[in-house]
Amino acid sequence: SERPAYFSDDDVSNIISYFHSINSSWMADMCLLAVKTGMRKGEILALGDGRAYISDDGLWIYLPAAVTKTSKDRYVPIKHPDANAAARRLVDTLADNYTRKKFEQRWDKCKREYGRNNEHYVFHLLRHTAISRMANDLDINTAVIAEVVGHSNVSTTQRYVHAKDSKLLEISSMM
Fold it and tell me: Which of 2, 55, 90, 167 is the most exposed place for a label (fewest CB within 10 A)?
């Protein structure tokens, strides 16, 4: 019953594939953008409703202070082709597809399919997954991660970083 720390790569793949399979590509794009950038659900929704936008050079999502949890403007890098494409599609399609009810119904179906009705199988874990990947797989400094995901304090970021078993084994083999 403990809250899972992050989604595995297989979990993420299953979630995204599931939403494509039920003709909810906008949900797949929301998940993809969250896991590639660490964006919060509300920040992604702001991209879809025009309160946030993609920069002229196409490499950044601008999040104004009104849509961030910290009430500070932030630029989210979207240079990865998958994140960039998902962001662009969401700008064009999210407003026509998203309602809170539709989102919750679809997420609940996915949770029943892959989360075995685990109450902690929540969209926000995609943010934990993104941050843990940045730390474990990309070896990015916690201060840089904090800036990317919009944390005011590095200690908040540290609560999101969860050591992957593979990283622990890698460290152990180097000792």
Answer: 2
In the block, tokens 């997954």 appear at 129
- Kindly report, residue by residue over 57-109, the tens digit of the pLDDT: 999 999 999 999 999 999 999 999 999 999 999 999 999 999 999 999 999 99
Give the integer Cα–Cα distance in Å for 174 and 38: 30
Tens of pLDDT, residues 62-72: 999 999 999 99
- Please answer whether residues 66 and 20 qualify as being in contact, where contact means their C-beta atoms are separated by less than 8 angstroms: no
DSSP-derived 3-state class of residue 112: helix
Buried/exposed 122-157: b ≥16 CB within 10 Å, e otherwise: bbebbbbbbbbbbbbeeeeebeebbebbbbeeeeeb
pTM: 0.90
